[in-house]
Amino acid sequence: MGPRLGRLLGSDNRCVNVAVDHGLFNERVFLTDIEDMPRVVHSIATADPDAIQLTPGLAHLLQTIPGRRRPALVLRTDVANVYGNSLPRVLFSRVLDHAVERAVRLDAAGVVVNLLWLPDQPELHEQCVANVARLRAACDRYAMPLMVEPLVMRPNREGGGYMVDGNLDRIMTLVRQAVELGADVVKADPCDDPSQYHQVIRIACGRPVLVRGGGKVPDLEILTRTWEVMKQGAAGVVYGRNIIQHAHPAGMVRALMAIVHETATPEQALRLLG
Predict the structure, then answer these.
(1) d(CA 55, CA 48)
(2) What does pTM read for this prediction?
(3) How far apart are CA 175 and CA 170, in angstroms?
(4) Following DSSP, what letter does each residue of 33-90 receive, concatenated?
(5) Is-contact 83 30, C-beta < 8 A?
(6) Which has the closest alpha carbon to 88: 125, 132, 124, 129?
(7) What integer is the mean pLDDT of 161-166?
(8) How far apart are the first and last CA of the chain?
(9) H or E segment at 203?
(10) Could you give the 3-state DSSP secondary structure of residue 17?
């Protein structure tokens, strides 16, 4: 597993992972600015992030880029229907068949799966626990790093799905469950007070913690939050809409790489955006 983790995290054990797997979740709003995926993937890849997170159906857009240098592939392995403004009558979270074997064939550096917590939805959480356990066994067989994404979500009626709850205690509890289930890397929510993020790092027991972005926010806000969680011990970030819906996605990648790998300040990184 070491060589794959090395491709994902690099020599400094840090990572900027650009998530472009939103189309899998069947919500029109998630497709904004990523309708032309060949163009999007090429544009992001040329900015040279550490990794790009894609689905099995579109991973080839990254893996067929010629040359010896290209971002590592993180393969999305599950699909859920929990991201709309209102929840459907029946909720599900399902792992795709033979997901880890697909990741091996696609030369992925890791796979990612959700560990969802929604208010008053214990059956959905049970499905996610089963998904993580099933993938852990397959990842052990193929020496594939497993990234678990513990998401503490607000009620969907409060601005739609995929909204960060921000409650530190809930985040810590779910992150620890991800670690106990066998996560090699944790993709975790940010908390309301970024200066307290060291508590999430501690509860992860040495696993690299990559912080997710959630909804799109102003440039200086996302850069400042990134700088703060890195100071608190995070290993990096996994951002989607704050990059792919930005006016200059490649510039935002370069700004984030400067903070994560070069300890740039938010103001220094902001200058890279022009």
Answers:
(1) 19
(2) 0.94
(3) 9
(4) T-SSHHHHHHHHHHT--SEEEE-TTTTHHHHT--SS--PEEEEE-EEE---SSS--SS
(5) yes
(6) 124
(7) 71
(8) 39
(9) helix 198-203
(10) strand
Do residues 124 and 90 make contact, with C-beta atoms less than 8 angstroms apart? no
User: Locate tokens 């040359």: which residue?
Assistant: 67
Residue pLDDT, tens place only, 102-118: 999 999 999 999 999 99
- Can you say how many angstroms the Cα of residue 165 is from the centroid of all Cα atoms in its chain? 16
User: What is the CA angle 104-99-64, rounded to 5?
Assistant: 50
State pLDDT tens for residues 250-274: 999 999 999 999 999 999 999 988 6
Q: How confident is the model at residue 144 (pLDDT cuts 50, 70, 90)?
A: very high
For residues 83 and 156, what is the distance between their CA atoms, to the nearest angstrom? 7
Considering only CA atoms, which of 84, 77, 80, 115 is closest in space to residue 99? 77
How many secondary structure helices (H) and strands (E) does the chain include? 11, 10
